[in-house]
Amino acid sequence: MYSASDLRKGLRVEIDGAPYIITDFNFVKPGKGASIYNCKMKNLITGNTLNRSYRSNDKLDEPKLEERTMRFSYVDGDAYVFIDKNFEQVNVSAEVLGVARFFLVEDIEVDILIHNDRPIGVELPTFIEKEIKETEPGYRGNTATNVTKSAKIEGGYELQVPLFINQGDVVKIDTRTGEYADRVSVAKGS
Amino acid sequence: MATGAPNRKKLAPPPAGGLRRLKALGPALALKSALLAAIRGFFHLRDYLEVETPVAVATPALELHIDAVRAGNKFLRTSPELHMKRLLCAGYGRIFQVGPCFRAGERGNLHNPEFTMLEWYRAKADYMDILDETRELLIDCAQKCLGRTWIEKNGVKINIADNWQILPVSGLFEKHAGWDPARDYDENRFETDLVALVEPRLPRDVPAVMKDYPAGAAALARLKKTDPRLAERWELYLGGIEIANAFSELTDASEQRKRFEDCARRRAARGAEIYEPDREFLAALETGMPDSAGIALGIDRLAMLFAGADSLDQVLPFR
C-alpha cells in the first residue's frame, strides 16, 4: 500500500487491477492549504494514459510486479518460450511481444515484466543484429544514409535501410524504434 | 561507411547526483551566497537583530496542513515562528532569522522537505508596513545579486521595482471562481479553486499580492477590525509562484488558544498527528505581545526565480 506522499515519477501503482507507471508527477501545495499530488500515468499493459490527483489521505495499491532476466529459447506455435538460468520457463504471446518478436535471436537476454504471474512486457537490448533477407540490389559506392529503400528481415518485418545495403548484409537495429542503426557486415560475394 | 562498423556500446549517462552536477551548479551556488549576504546587509542596515532559534523543538506550530519530521523525542521545526514571537514578547522589536525548516512529505519542483526560510518580525507594524519593507528588500537583493531589478519567468520580464498589484482575495474569487470565500468559507472548495482557477490567472508580468484572506485560512493572523470575516494576511506571487506569506500577528492569547484547539480538532479529523500546543509560547503571549507583523519568505524559491530557473533542482545542490 502506498500513501500519497510516496508518489513520484517512475513509481508503479495499481489502479482497478491494472499496473500503471507514473510518467509525470507534480506536487502542489497552495499557501497554508492541503497537499495535492498530480500524477500522469501510463497503463503498463495497454499503454493508455491517465491523469489523477490525490490528497494526503489517499492510499494506492502496490502492483505485484516482477522483473526477470531470461534468455529466448524457441517458438512454440503462438508462444515465445524464454528460459532463465535455473531452466524455469515463461511463455510470452506474440501480442505481448508486439514488434519485438521480430528482433529475437536465440539466447538473447531480455528482461520480462510479470504482473500477477502474467508476462506483460519484454525489454530487449537496445541494439540487435539481423540479416537482410530481401531488398532491391544495392548501389555500390553509394554510401549516403539519407536516401533509403525498404528491406525485410526474417519473419517479414520491414524497415528502411540506406541504398548501399544488400540482401545478406547484417545490420544493427535499434529495438526502441525498430529502425536501422548501422551496417555490421557485408554479404559474402558482394 | 563502406564496411561493417565495430559494435559500439552505448555509454551510460552520468549519474544524476554526481560531482558533475555539483560542478555545474556553480553559478546557482554563487547566486544563493550573494542573496544571503544581501539579505543580512539589508536587515543589519535597518537595525534588525539576527537571531537563531532551536531547529529541534518540543512541539511544532499547529497548522492544519503542515506535518513535522520527528527527530528523536523532538520535532524538526516547520517554521521558527513561535520562538521568534517569544522574542517579540520579550521586547526585541526588530528580529530576523535565516535558517532551515522541515516539512514532511513536501517534495516537488517548488518544494523540498528541507528548505531555507527567511522570517522577520517587527513590533508596532502591521502587514502593510511589512509589504513595503518586502518590496524594498527584494529590489535591494535583485540589484545586489543581479545588477538589475527585473527577473524573467517563462520569457516574461517582471520588474520588481514596478508597482505591485494588490488584489483582495474576495474579489479574485468572485471574478475567477464565482463565489466569495469570506461570505461562507469552505476550506476544500477554497483550496481547489485557488489552485485551479485563481492562481493561474494572477498577473505574471508584475509582482502580485493576494490580500485579506478568509479568517478560516489564517490561524495565526489578526482579524481585520473593519471586517472580522477577513484576516490581515497577504501572499506574494512572482511569475505565479508563491514567495512569501505575511500576517498582522494575532496577539490575543485566549483567541490563540482557541484557534490551536480548533486546529487540533481539524487535524484529528484528517487523521493527522496532533501536536501539543506550545505552552511557553502561549504563556509569553499572555504577558503581552506588542502589535506586530511578521513574514516568512522562501529563500530557495527566490534564488530559483533570480536564476531564471523553473525547478529547485536547478539551485539546490542536494535533493
What does this entry look like structurally?
The complex is a heterodimer of chains A (190) and B (319). Chain A has one helix and 16 strands. Chain A is mainly beta and 190 residues long. Chain A has a five-stranded antiparallel sheet with strand order 9-8-7-10-11. A five-stranded antiparallel sheet of chain A has the order 14-13-12-15-16, with no helix packed on it. Chain A has a four-stranded antiparallel sheet with strand order 2-3-4-5, with no helix packed on it. In chain A, strand 13 and strand 14 form a beta hairpin. The longest helix of chain A is centred in the middle third of the chain and has 4 residues, at 94-97. Chain B is an alpha+beta fold and 319 residues long. Chain B has one domain: Bira Bifunctional Protein, Domain 2 (BirA Bifunctional Protein, domain 2). Helices cover 34% and strands 22% of the residues of chain B. Chain B contains nine helices and 13 strands. In chain B, the strands form three sheets. An eight-stranded mixed sheet of chain B has the order 1-5-6-13-12-11-10-9, sandwiched between helices. In chain B, strand 3 (70-71) and strand 4 (74-76) form a beta hairpin. In chain B, helix 2 (26-45) crosses helix 4 and helix 3 (81-89) runs parallel beside helix 8. Chain B starts with 18 loop residues before the first helix and ends in a 13-residue tail after the last helix.
